Amino acid sequence: MNFPSVRLYTRKLWTCEGCIGESDVGLRDTQHHILICEAYADYRIGKDFSNDKDLVDYYREVLKHRTE
User: Fold this and answer.
1) Which of 51, 59, 62, 68 is the most exposed place for a label (fewest CB within 10 A)?
2) How far apart are CA 39 and CA 57, in angstroms?
C-alpha cells in the first residue's frame, strides 16, 4: 500500500504476494500485514520487532525474497 496508484498493484487489488496465488484475492499488502503474514514466518524467527535493527533486517529479507 506504499504505492497504491501503481497499475500492477491495482490490478492485483493490493494483495499480499505471500498469501495468494495468481488468481486468488488475499489480504491487503500493508506493512502491518507483512509483520504477521504466515508466508514470512520463517524470517521472523529470532527477531524482536521492538529492536529497529531486527525490524529493518526482517523487511529486507522479505523484500529480497519477493525480488528473487
Assistant:
1) 68
2) 16
As a whole number of Å, the end-to-end CA separation of the chain is 20
Report angle CA 1, 39, 13 to the nearest 5 degrees: 30
Q: With the C-alpha atoms ordered 53, 56, 61, 64, is the resulting torsion angle positive or negative? A: negative
> Cell 528473487 belongs to which residue?
68
As a 3-state breakdown, the chain gives helix, strand, coil percent values, each rounded to 5, of: 50, 5, 45
User: At 15, phi and psi to the nearest 5?
Assistant: -85, 145
- Tell me the per-residue pLDDT of 19-30, one tens digit each, with 9 for 90 and over: 765 555 567 778
